[in-house]
Amino acid sequence: MATPAKRNHLTYLFEASPFFKAAFTSDFRENPERTMTLPEDDETIFELFVDWLYHQRYDVPSTPNDPETPCDRFMQPVQLFVLADKYGVRNLKNVIVSQIHSVVKMSSDVPKEATIAYAYEHTSQNSTIRKVLADMMACYVGRNWFERAVNQTWLRDHHDISMDVMVRLAERAEDAYGGPFYRGVPEEYVEEEEESEE
């Protein structure tokens, strides 16, 4: 029989995750310890999940966790989102998306390419984190970024990201004054007459 402390832990877990509820109520009848090993999950990220279970709060780090690593402040929340997505923890996913949105709204910070690629590699096509990341790129990544050869190569290598960003850019163009086809002909569409040499 589970102690009150264990029962309390499991209650939080079961309320948050249908995966864990199903796993602990069906597959673990033969496991009197009622334990589960999750070797593929990052321990630090799982600890953040457990912390969220008890406090129902998560804040995006103000700076990268380790200044020596080439990741950014968004890698940790994206990793936590992926873990929450894996175990069906919808409320945590919504908290993370909301926190990322708030940070971006206040700072215009954009995740690095490695963070975006990680999210796309570990989530499904309709994932909300993909929508947020694509919107971040469409809104806050400047034209110069898209013109750099290294970034063009990255976008070609990550066609799913490219497509999402193009859709988001198209939506922004539609929203901005109805797009270029609801006004007069934009100057950039008109070729200037070449000066003749006489």
Task: Write a short abstract of this structure.
The chain has helices at 4-16, 18-27, 43-55, 75-86, 90-107, 113-122, 128-140, 143-147, 149-157, 159-175. The protein is mostly helical. The chain has one domain (38-179).
Could you describe the 3D structure shown?
With 198 residues, the protein is mostly helical. The protein has one domain (38-179). Helix content is 61%, strand content 0%. The protein has ten helices and no strands. It has helices at residues 4-16, 18-27, 43-55, 75-86, 90-107, 113-122, 128-140, 143-147, 149-157, 159-175. 19% of the residues are buried. Mean pLDDT is 78; it is low at 1-7.
Identify the notable features of this structure and list them briefly.
198 residues, mainly alpha, 10 helices, disordered N terminus
| Overall average residue pLDDT | 78
Summed up, the domain count is: 1
Order of helices and strands: HHHHHHHHHH
Q: Indicate the structural class.
A: mainly alpha
N-to-C CA distance: 99 Å
Number of helices: 10
Overall geometry comes to elongated
Topology of this structure?
Blueprint: H1 4-16, H2 18-27, H3 43-55, H4 75-86, H5 90-107, H6 113-122, H7 128-140, H8 143-147, H9 149-157, H10 159-175
Pfam families: BTB (PF00651)
Protein name: BTB domain-containing protein
InterPro entries: BTB/POZ_dom (IPR000210), SKP1/BTB/POZ_sf (IPR011333)
